[in-house]
Amino acid sequence: MTSPHIASRASTQRAATHVAADGISVSYGERRVLTDVSFSVTSGRPTGLIGENGSGKTTLLRVLAGRQRPDAGTVRAVGPAGAPARVGLLHQEPPFALDETVEEAVESSVRLLREVSRAVGDAARALAAAPHDERVGTAYAEALEAAERTGAWDVDTAIAATLDGLGLGDVPRNRRTGELSGGQRARLSLAWTLLSAPDVLLLDEPTNHLDDSAVEFLTGTLRSWPGPVLLASHDRAFLDSSVNSLVDLDPAPQPHSLTGDLVGDGTGTGIGVIRFSGSYSRYVLSRMDARERWERTYRDEQARLRKLRAAARDQHTVGHSDWTPRSDTRMAKKFYADRNATVVSRRVNDARARLAALEEEQIRKPPPELFFQGLTVADSAAQDRLRASGPVLTASAAEVSGRLAPVSLTVGAGEKWLLTGPNGVGKSTLLNLFAGRLQPTGGSVHCAPGLRVGMLGQDDTLAGADPDRSVAETYRALVGEDRAESVPLGTFGLLPGRDENRPLGALSVGQRRRLALAALLADPPHVLLLDEPTNHFSLVLATQLEAAVPGYPGTVVVASHDRWLRRTWNGRHLRLEAPAV
What we know:
Blueprint: H1 4-7, E1 18-28, E2 31-42, E3 47-50, H2 57-64, E4 72-78, E5 87-90, H3 102-109, H4 111-129, H5 134-150, H6 155-165, H7 182-195, E6 200-204, H8 212-223, E7 229-232, H9 236-242, E8 245-248, H10 256-259, E9 274-277, H11 280-314, H12 330-361, H13 382-385, E10 391-400, E11 404-412, E12 416-420, H14 427-435, E13 442-447, E14 453-456, H15 471-479, H16 481-486, H17 509-521, E15 527-531, H18 539-548, E16 555-559, H19 563-568, E17 572-575
Parallel strand pairs: 3-7, 3-8, 5-6, 6-7, 12-16, 12-17, 14-15, 15-16
Antiparallel strand pairs: 1-2, 1-4, 8-9, 10-11, 10-13
Helix pairs in contact: 3-7, 4-5, 6-7, 11-12, 15-17
Keywords: ATP-binding, Nucleotide-binding, Repeat
Domain ABC transporter: 19-276, 386-581
Pfam families: ABC_tran
């Protein structure tokens, strides 16, 4: 199902519409985030933007949208008929004020389309008054073309279809947006962006907070979107079904002479981009092969460099060092000495030239890749300490009025549970009951005595922490000085060491969520609750985290919409359903 408003524009939008980045570079202080990024996106199936947390995806989208000026490079966004394109950006901040009602927020998104519709009426009345005026006729034709291109005729139908498709159809239009849940505000922000009908669509993590039906709606909408679409996403299944090309910001092989020793160069910082045509699944295999080739090429080049440097040192004599000419005459000695000097000079210069050429062209060293070290790396005794027996969590007809219908569930020690279901059925609410963050309004929830419960909420990005405090100081404040001393932040493979002295506010949302996960795992709990654990995490980390769950010696309960995770899940499964009306 797609929005009829959006689909109606597909036949009239010009294929020439595009957005192009040329040599974009951005630094934050001494840290370089984007370096010489160039690529373009044209109309057609969406392009995926991927990369490690902190690699600059959000920054790049803001630059393309004109929200942030790059340190170097240019952006060109061309709309229909060569006019400047209107660029729409979905990012973390809502595009509406929190004191607005849902109705007011929606109407602000379609204000331009309402104006286009009114312009057609005004032009029609002007044409009726002056039917033979060529300029009036041209204005009417242009107004009609704009209405067709933007779908201005179908605004009200589009509003209803988009809100229904994103699971917001039942939300009262007179409710203040500040009273909505975080997930509802995120979906309303997505609806606002789609309904504003920009020529170029830029989306930052659009599937966060979307259930299956909403993802299906979004996928269909983007497939029929007439203009360029560039989306940054952690959702592997969504990428596989929605894009046919990828732009990867992670480091790639580049000549050392072009990169130098960049400040902050390493994991999460690339030079240029890798462009790939095909699905995400195919790209994963291609990238693994490319990394192996990069490492092998670097090793081979370094071996050649060592040989050439040795040759440049040794090529100073010809023949045996103790050889002397047969004739003792001064003329003979001079002749042979001159010949030796000429040959030596030629060989030395040749060796130095080959050395200089290879040093100039050599690729840079592959930066170390972050690799998540597991859920229990902080505790060598976790296998024994976290084991329990019998039921550890019990919900008996537990409910929260307006948020969770009565549910009964018994979770045994060491079990791995996956909670699924559409938006609004109470998956996060049930986890919060188990974590003790909420109390039921009916029924009961019980945790076995002596067991510690830890939870990573879906929005746990340390939003309330001091943004000016360093990452290392924040970690120490979260886990305590003694724990931070015995379990350093670098233990987990979640953040590179260079980030530990940066202020917390300089981290991306995904990097702050990595820090929250590290703080949780510094002392692994008996019961680990993970609410949408793949939200905001890079594709690589999401895969590594999923792979670690089955081996956790304690109990794990995961709530997730992630279709990729659900496909590979081998533990127990509870699907929550909306209560019957």
